Structures are given as C-alpha cells and as structure tokens.
Amino acid sequence: MVNKKQNQGATATLERRAESRIKAGHPVLLISPNALPMEACVLDISSRGVRLRVPEAVPAGTAIRVEGPELMLFGSIPHCELNRGAYEVGLKLSQPLKMLGELRKLYAALLTESEP
User: Fold this and answer.
1) Model-wide pTM > 0.70
2) What is the DSSP string of 18-70?
C-alpha cells in the first residue's frame, strides 16, 4: 500500500500540466512596464499560459503584455530559466482562453503573422 502511494506521487510530479499545449514558434513583442519592448518567440500555448523564448531574463512576478498583429495577451511571469543561450519564460494568462476554439483562432492568427 505504501509503495502504491509513493508511485502515485512520483507520477504526479512528472507532468505538471493539466492541459495540452499547441506548439507555435512565432514572433511577438513582449512588453513590460519598466523595460523596453523585447522581441520574443511563442514556443507553445495553452488556454491558461504561454511559453516564450526571449534574449534577456525577465524577473518572476513581472506583469507582461504580449503583442502581435491581431493578438494581445496579458499575464505575469511565474518563472524564467536560461536554456541554450536564451531564456524561456512562462506567461500565466490573466484571462484564460475559455474555449479550444479561441485557442485555435489564436494559433491561426499566429500562423498568418509569420507568412510573407
């Protein structure tokens, strides 16, 4: 019985995400109150958050606006980690995307932004 509980605990820590993410890879502008706008790349997105790649560290707790053509998201940074010469930041959205349809529309908008 003890082993079963230990295994359940180990399994729960392997995957922290409660929902799937859509891979993206599109450029956006990251804007924070006390810094210059920074180019960023959306790595993936879910209804509650976005993972971005940025050239400079962004302190945890920073309020952020992410902008692109036909796109504006608001949230805060829960974490920032150095990864292969750049930083990966999580953005916890202040207004979750309520339906999968909204997420698909956002993804479609990101795709059209990157087309020549």
Assistant:
1) no
2) SS--EEEEEEEEEE-TTS--EEEEEEEE-SSEEEEEESS---TT-EEEEEETT
